[in-house]
Amino acid sequence: MKLIVGLGNPGRKYAQTRHNIGFWVLAELSRRLNIPLNKEKFHGVVGEGMVGSEKVVLLMPTTYMNLSGESVRPAMDWYKADLDELLVVYDDMDLPLGKIRLRLKGSSGGHNGMKSIIQHLGTDEFKRLKLGVDRPPAGISVPNYVLAPFLPEEQSEAQSAAQMAAEAVEAWLSEDFLQVMNRFNVNK
């Protein structure tokens, strides 16, 4: 079983923002894996399906970013998922736009959605896939930056990163996570 969580904020207002790139990846996985996101459970939108013999659950929390753990914890409990079956996909300001990084574990790095998940799970020992969104330019606050849409000239690179992230998640469904990290954590 694999539980793949994409972080973002609910609603049309936030759909194209930097903070919602985790949702973009889940939407792409839904399309690629033919797993419709069609159930409302665990304070989120859920899709369940099979990829080969592997059960795959896609989860987009609708709690707003800062409360993401309130969605992830009940999903983990319901599916009796082990921590090694969880992958959280989210935006990261410490990575350049267009880059992705897979990690086995780690701190929240100041990301409030990750802080919430770590708090609710009681550990930071779970896999994550980070998509770079760059740091805000001088004079723009972090909240204003991550809650703003990608600029037109950034759209293509952001979409490419979401595609690459979906490809990495797909690879994890049939390969060891360390192999996937080694392949996708290169500077392309």
Query: What series of H and E elements makes up the topology?
Result: EHEEEHEEHEHHH
Strand content: 15-25%
| Overall tally of structural domains | 1
How far apart, in Å, are the first and last alpha carbons?
30 Å
**For the residues shown, what is the average pLDDT?**
96
CATH architecture: 3-Layer(aba) Sandwich
Give the biggest sheet.
7 strands, mixed
Chain oligomer state = single chain
Class per helix and strand makeup? alpha/beta
**Number of DSSP helices?**
6
Total beta-strand segments: 7
According to CATH, the fold-level topology is Rossmann fold
Kindly report the name of the CATH homologous superfamily. Answer: Peptidyl-tRNA hydrolase
What would a concise description of this structure say?
With 188 residues, the chain is an alpha/beta fold.
Structure description:
- With 188 residues, the protein is an alpha/beta fold.
- It has one domain: 3-Layer(aba) Sandwich (Rossmann fold).
- Helix content is 36%, strand content 22%.
- It contains six helices and seven strands.
- The chain has a seven-stranded mixed sheet with strand order 2-3-4-1-5-7-6, with helices on both faces.
- Strand 2 and strand 3 form a beta hairpin.
- It is globular, with a radius of gyration of 15 Å.
- The relative contact order is 0.19.
- The model has no long low-confidence stretch (mean pLDDT 96).
